[in-house]
Amino acid sequence: MIDLGKFVDKYKLIASNDHSLDILRYSQKHFPLYFPNRGLNRLARDKTKVYIHHECLEENIINELVRKDTKVFIDNLGDSGQREYIFLMSGSRHEANQQVEFRGVLGYNRLEEIILTILLSGINHNNIVILDKNPLYKNIISNDLISIRNLELDSIIVGGSIVFKEFLRNDKKFKLVSKNRGRILSTELYVYNGRNYIFTTYPYADLCEIVIKELTHFNFNRIFFFGSCGYIGDYKNRQIGDILAPTKIINEDGTNIQIYHNNRFVERETNTVHGLAKTIQEETLQFIKTLKVKGVQSIDMEVAYFQNGLEKYFKDKRIEVGILVYIMDFPGTSLTYDNVSYHDDKIILARKNLFSNFLNYISII
User: Fold this and answer.
1) CA angle at residue 170 from 244 to 265, to 5 degrees?
2) Across the beta sheet with 83-90, what order do the strands follow?
3) What is the pTM of this model?
4) Number of neighbours of residue 164 by Cβ within 10 angstroms
5) Spatial contact of 259 and 274, defined as CB atoms under 8 Å apart
6) pLDDT exceeds cutoff 70 at 365
7) Where are the alpha helices (DSSP H) in the chain?
8) Residue 140 in contact with residue 183, Cβ under 8 Å?
């Protein structure tokens, strides 16, 4: 059973502190805060119940969610093409049987993000109902990866199909063999110099660790993570697009979780002590201050889960691990995640530089 109370406690902490970004603007971009039908804001005033389904939806039943009285159907896909949620409003606001739902929510951190957003929009916790259908994550991810299970792989590049997207397509040495869209993880198989490389989307936050666990059934020599981060260290000599190599990865309690698998890029790029933010919503100024006290310089929502998965499930396996992130924003300044574009020239150049780092590494294998 999922305890709503712990989310309410975190919401109260967030609501009582200044945030490191414009959380209202961020929420408007990613959630139906004011639109359609005045969105969550109106639901708060009307004291409407909101049902959140922790579940895996089969693609063939999604259309069946639409009823004759459905007023709103939003299938919200993230930048990586993975479903974040389906938002449904059925019935009239003037009738007692109006139903408001978030369907197809996967991952406990995603669930937390949605609940915190609903609470921050003004909806009382008594009007939130969590329907936990206990999705079998192992089975979901196994099915996402079934097309590549028996392949001999040189490398798996987590986040590669997103961060390297156009560069892969334009590099004639990389030959696209197949693509598969999964519920949690989508993959692209490329051949480069006779070797198989799998480039994936980003498994959101805590799902990253579950994906790593499932990868114990696969044969590969190297695994990489390439992504973005927020920089909270001394930013006077840092700028958007700078590339960092985590030399320490700090868990929530401040412990360095790197034990068996060190980052192969630490001698190639500027080092950073990297921390974890479970959701954007929890990144208050006080949260950032606490991380700084622990020596954290950069944060994101996946790297710690990625590393933790490797430490747990690959401690007896000899594989090479590489992690690079580029600075996307500076939480607590005017350059925050809610107002920096993924298509900014500096970001495109950063992604191109990440790709060059990757090519340089595999070219000397």
Assistant:
1) 20
2) 70-77, 83-90, 99-105, 50-54, 128-132
3) 0.95
4) 23
5) no
6) no
7) 4-15, 23-30, 39-46, 108-120, 137-144, 160-163, 165-170, 207-214, 285-293, 303-313, 345-363
8) yes
For residues 262 and 256, the answer to whether their CB atoms sit within 8 Å is: no
Task: Write the DSSP symbol of residue 203.
Answer: P
Phi first, then psi, for residue 247 (nearest 5°) are: -95, -25
Secondary structure of 286-307 as H, E, C letters? HHHHHHHHCCCCEEECCHHHHH
Q: Mind listing the pLDDT tens digit for each residue in 149-186?
A: 999 999 999 999 999 999 999 999 999 999 999 999 99
Q: Which two tokens stand for residue 286?
A: 């006080």
For the chain, the residue count is 365
CB 137 within 8 Å of CB 184: yes
**CB atoms near residue 170 (< 10 Å):** 8
Q: What is the token pair recorded at 100?
A: 């408001």
